[in-house]
């Protein structure tokens, strides 16, 4: 079916931020003859200062994409029929209520994916709809991403969003683990143009140290790079802490006046000498010792770790330890250290101590605890497939593609085909939404008015920017917020506040007492200055004090200690983000897919056996098997292989022509849903034990 043509934009120059990733770069778009003829970085954006990446330039392509859906679709067997919006919303509300009436409120599950935080309309309205459903089966990308950051923040500072952000523009020492901002453009670190920001640290005499199992694109812009064994970072961080504490290098300064638990840290770190962790981490003891001393002595230093430290078995401990390193060296809440942004729309306005909960309920099958109202998404397939009271019979997905993005994706793929009802609010017919009975496709990208509610909370500089739409929408299109308002009204009879009303109220009550109109009047963004210290006033712990050694972390150390002498699997698999990719989507954009296929397995020469680059290999894990071309490279350390996530588009019924031509395989057909960071419930997506063998020769001439 051909999508309806969306109306052409007016000619002119538009300024708005790219909403594809956390860098939120200001863009300058020129429209001539109804076409976007030029996209470049906006040099007047006070945060991004002209930065742009290839994805930002490809943003207008979404609108020309013939596979993008604009009208609701209803599935009848394998056939999709367009239906009218009112009919679609009525049908969805009725079916969800029917399932809940028959099987209970929790029989409907919800999954919210990554772009729902990149669209303020979705962010500010989806919650009310999900709440109206009243289900405890809520899932989101959080538990395959940054749950350990939130967990550590809640335990130490009292709120999941009190996330310390490395003040990269003023630091003298950036210690970075498991992050690749040159490919990802930064995460829980909104600092567009990290290449220049890293160069500036080096040019002012500072030091950038990177630890990663792979010599990444970011390694080239660091002062030094050290390989580290996947999943061993908590041991390494404890060894740093041990050196700092045992050599009298700790100087928490002002923070000591409102921090509990500092006195217990030396004993906790005692077993983890650099020598004791050397074998497990692969980092030489002398290196660890030198790094600890230099970090502690640097005038201003920040320790930062992202996905690589989060989607692993000790994610919660890693994020606690990073915060603790910053804390004991006096770098927390200090310029050039790790600081807490205070954005103009501040989600902490009105927050009270003790509101975050953990373990109030548990998943039915595996007994996994909720965190802040959500269950680990590694549990979702099992909850659908396991019969009994409380089984999930219906699913709502919002801006997510969990078949490709969650561990053991092929189980979920199978599970989704058994549901009584599924609805996806998503502009594409992809690996997940193909299982839906109804797809409600929202307007997206440059069509949407957007304010970055979330990412200003992670930004190295406080700015505020309202992004006006470039493309008008057609009469048959709807925004996410209209879809959620329509569904909520049908379920509750209540009208939802519009995103504009919510934004205006939030800005007025925020720390700068702005209004939406004031922000709108600054099309390049309003500059509100650098981060400033906010503790102890911003703390939301019950005690009103920082907790340096939360009890759940102390307890979890036993689990970590057991790994010190555990056998190391011969080969483990990690992920690989790529600049021209965006999780599981944007693979349908021809200009981003040019060049050789990128879904390849990187393997160190020491692990290659007789394999040659280009040869196809079977990769097998406990849960699955895929066949991919191999690339032999010294960039991954021995014993580690790497494969990008978000591919695997060859599934039947998917409507993504370009992506299907570069289908690749899904990394998450290999990741194991049984492996979790037991402390937080986050999925373990890196460090998966695998073995490889040459793929059988298609011509049948292979030895076996
Ligand atoms: N093995 C492995 N797995 C991973 C990761 C990894 O590093 N390794 N990374 C994890 C991380 S960090 C994340 S965040 C997740 C991401 O995984 P998901 O949260 O599942 O998100 P995406 O794969 O980005 O899929 C986004 C979906 O949103 C739709 N969409 C785009 N724009 C809009 C919009 O404006 N409105 C609506 N309603 N829908 C929209 C797209 O069509 C697409 O279907 O993957 C995780 N999975
Ligand atoms: N181009 C592009 N940009 C993106 C995305 C995308 O898909 N494409 N996704 C966006 C999203 S949703 C997110 S959450 C961010 C993520 O942002 P980042 O975390 O910066 O992204 P990654 O490139 O996955 O970096 C993680 C690094 O951890 C390393 N690693 C893996 N296992 C371990 C380990 O056990 N220990 C250590 N020390 N390192 C390890 C990997 O080799 C990798 O280099 O990126 C965002 N930006
Ligand atoms: S870095 Fe991120 S926000 Fe900036 S242009 Fe690229 S995708 Fe968009
Ligand atoms: Mo993410």
Automatic annotation (TrEMBL):
Keyword S-adenosyl-L-methionine (UniProt): no
Organism superkingdom: Bacteria
Molecular function terms from GO: 4 iron, 4 sulfur cluster binding; metal ion binding; molybdopterin cofactor binding; oxidoreductase activity
UniProt keyword terms in alphabetical order: 4Fe-4S, Iron, Iron-sulfur, Metal-binding, Oxidoreductase
Any Pfam family hit: Molybdop_Fe4S4
Gene Ontology CC annotations of this record: membrane
PROSITE patterns linked to this entry: 4FE4S_MOW_BIS_MGD (PS51669)
Residue ranges annotated for the 4Fe-4S Mo/W bis-MGD-type domain, each copy included: 11-67
PANTHER family: NADPH-FE(3+) OXIDOREDUCTASE SUBUNIT ALPHA, RESPIRATORY NITRATE REDUCTASE
Name of the protein this chain belongs to: Oxidoreductase
Lineage: Bacteria, Thermotogati, Deinococcota, Deinococci, Deinococcales
């Amino acid at each position: 079916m051909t999508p309806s043509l969306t109306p052409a934009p007016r000619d002119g120059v538009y300024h708005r931020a790219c909403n594809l990733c956390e860098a939120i770069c200001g863009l300058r778009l020129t429209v001539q003859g109804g076409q976007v003829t030029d996209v470049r970085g906006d040099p007047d954006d006070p945060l991004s200062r002209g930065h742009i990446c290839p994805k930002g330039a490809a943003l207008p392509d979404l609108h020309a994409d013939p596979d993008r859906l604009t009208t609701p679709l209803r599935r009848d067997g394998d056939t999709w029929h367009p239906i009218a919006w009112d009919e679609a919303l009525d049908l969805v509300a009725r079916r969800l209520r029917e399932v809940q009436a028959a099987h209970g409120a929790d029989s409907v599950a919800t999954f919210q994916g990554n772009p729902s935080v990149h669209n303020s309309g979705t962010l500010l309205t989806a919650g009310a709809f999900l709440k109206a459903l009243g289900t405890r089966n809520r899932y989101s990308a959080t538990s395959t991403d940054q749950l350990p950051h939130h967990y550590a923040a809640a335990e130490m500072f009292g709120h999941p969003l009190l996330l310390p952000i490395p003040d990269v523009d003023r630091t003298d020492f950036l210690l970075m683990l498991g992050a690749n901002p040159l490919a990802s453009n930064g995460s829980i670190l909104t600092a567009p143009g990290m290449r220049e920001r890293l160069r500036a640290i080096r040019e002012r005499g500072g030091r950038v140290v990177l630890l990663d199992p792979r010599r990444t694109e970011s390694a080239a812009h660091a002062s030094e790079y050290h390989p580290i064994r996947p999943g061993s970072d908590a041991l390494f961080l404890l060894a740093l802490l041990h050196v700092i504490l045992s050599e009298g290098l700790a100087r928490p300064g002002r923070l000591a006046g409102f921090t509990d638990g500092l006195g217990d840290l030396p004993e906790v770190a005692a077993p983890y000498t650099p020598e004791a962790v050397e074998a497990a981490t692969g980092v030489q003891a002398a290196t660890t010792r030198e790094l600890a001393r230099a970090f502690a002595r640097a005038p201003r230093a920040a320790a930062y770790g992202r996905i690589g430290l989060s989607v692993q078995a000790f994610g919660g401990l890693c994020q606690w330890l990073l915060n603790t390193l910053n804390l004991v060296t006096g770098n927390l809440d200090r310029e050039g250290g790790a600081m807490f942004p205070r954005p103009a729309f501040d989600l902490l306005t009105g927050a009270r101590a003790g509101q975050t909960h953990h373990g109030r309920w548990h998943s039915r099958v595996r007994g996994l605890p909720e965190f802040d109202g959500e269950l680990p998404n590694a549990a979702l397939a099992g909850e659908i497939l396991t019969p009994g009271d409380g089984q999930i019979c219906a699913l709502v997905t919002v801006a997510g593609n969990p078949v490709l993005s969650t561990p053991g994706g092929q189980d979920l793929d199978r599970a989704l085909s058994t549901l009584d009802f599924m609805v996806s609010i998503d502009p594409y017919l992809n690996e997940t939404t193909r299982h839906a009975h109804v797809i409600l496709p929202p307007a997206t990208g440059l069509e949407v008015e957007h304010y970055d509610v979330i990412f200003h909370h992670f930004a190295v500089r406080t700015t505020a920017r309202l992004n006006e739409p470039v493309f008008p929408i057609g009469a048959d299109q709807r925004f996410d917020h209209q879809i959620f308002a329509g569904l909520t009204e049908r379920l509750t009879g209540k009208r939802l506040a519009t995103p504009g009303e919510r934004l205006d109220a939030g800005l007025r009550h925020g720390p700068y007492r702005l209004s939406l109109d004031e922000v709108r009047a600054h099309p390049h963004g309003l500059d509100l200055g650098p981060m400033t210290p906010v503790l102890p006033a911003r703390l939301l712990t019950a005690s009103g004090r920082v907790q340096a050694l939360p009890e759940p972390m102390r307890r979890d150390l036993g689990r970590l200690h057991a790994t010190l002498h555990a056998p190391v699997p011969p080969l483990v698999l990690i992920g690989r983000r790529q600049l021209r990719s965006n999780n599981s989507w944007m693979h349908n954009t021809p200009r981003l897919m040019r060049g050789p296929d990128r879904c390849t397995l990187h393997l160190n020469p020491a692990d290659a056996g007789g394999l040659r680059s280009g040869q196809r290999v079977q990769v097998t894990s406990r849960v699955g098997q895929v066949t991919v071309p191999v690339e032999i490279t010294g960039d991954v350390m021995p014993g580690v292989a790497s494969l990008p996530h978000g591919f695997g588009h060859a599934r039947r019924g998917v409507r993504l022509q370009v992506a299907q031509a570069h289908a690749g395989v899904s990394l998450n057909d290999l990741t194991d849903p049984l492996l979790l960071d037991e402390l937080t419930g986050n999925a373990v997506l890196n460090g998966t034990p695998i073995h490889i063998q040459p793929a059988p020769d298609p011509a049948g001439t292979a030895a076996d």
